[in-house]
Amino acid sequence: MANDKKYDEGTQDSKLLLDHDFDGIRELDNPPPPWLMMIFYATIIWSIFYGFYYHVFDGPSQEDEYNATMAEVKANMPVNTFDEANIALLTDETALASGQAFYASKACDACHGVTNIGPNLTDEFWIHGNKIDQVFKSIKYGIPEKGMTPFKDQMTDQQIHELASYVITKMKGAVTTNTKGPQGDKYE
Ligand code: HEC
């Protein structure tokens, strides 16, 4: 036991020295600090509750929790109550002014005014009708095969409602640079 010389009687290390000796290698009984041990014991106690809760008493699985969260999100989603089959023409000046602003900001005039790509919207002739629900649909869903852009991804239903109301009430007879002749049927 030549190595024992390092640990003089009475020193801290000699008190910690374990009896076990392997090929001259000795070990000190040097436990981790108490705070670390407390955390370690706490995790063991926690795991007992955890195990019982989830495996014995059938606590919610990840899938259950996911489904519950999704159900909650769905329940809190704003419901689109807009009923496009039963909309009425807006006459309120604020709504019409808002519609006019959309007509400008969405560059409708690029096809319906400054160029003749789209039909004249100021005359009495309409290919797809000039009732509010018809004009609403022309704008919302577009007529892609004929070059009319669908605006449903760029505007809300309420905004399209205002825009369609503006097109019907304010554009009739307005001065336009669109020189297309009558297209479609005549609507008073
Ligand atoms: C890229 C060019 C283009 C743009 C931009 C465009 N339109 Fe059109 N639009 C057309 C074409 C082309 C038609 C004709 C479709 C057909 O012949 O069936 C049309 C048709 C329409 C109709 C139906 C007209 C009818 O006679 O029934 C309405 C209403 C209309 N557009 C409104 C709008 C509004 C409002 C905007 C802006 C938000 C707009 N369009 C932007 C090309 C365009």
- Report strand %: 5-15%
Q: Work out the radius of gyration.
A: 39 Å
Number of strands: 4
Bound molecules: heme C
CATH fold field value of the largest domain: Cytochrome Bc1 Complex, Chain D, domain 2
Mean pLDDT: 90
- Could you tell me how far the N terminus lies from the C terminus, measured between alpha carbons in angstroms? 116 Å
Task: Please outline the helices and strands.
Elements: H1 12-16, E1 17-22, E2 25-28, H2 34-56, H3 62-76, H4 93-105, H5 109-112, E3 125-126, H6 132-141, H7 157-170, E4 185-186
Antiparallel strand pairs: 1-2, 3-4
The protein binds heme C (HEC).
The site of heme C (HEC) has 27 residues, from α5, α6 and α7.
Could you give a short description of this structure?
The protein is mainly α and 188 residues long.
What would your notes on this structure say?
By secondary structure, the protein is mainly alpha-helical. It has two domains: 34-76; 84-186, Cytochrome c-like domain (Cytochrome Bc1 Complex, Chain D, domain 2, Orthogonal Bundle), CATH 1.10.760. 45% of the residues lie in helices and 7% in strands. The chain has seven helices and four strands; from the N terminus they run H-E-E-H-H-H-H-E-H-H-E. The protein has helices spanning 12-16, 34-56, 62-76, 93-105, 109-112, 132-141, 157-170, and strands at 17-22, 25-28, 125-126, 185-186. The strands form two sheets. It has a two-stranded antiparallel sheet with strand order 1-2. The longest helix is centred in the first third of the chain and has 23 residues, at 34-56. The chain is rod-shaped and about 115 Å long. The termini are far apart. Heme C binds next to helix 5, helix 6 and helix 7. The site of heme C (HEC) has 27 residues, from helix 5, helix 6 and helix 7.
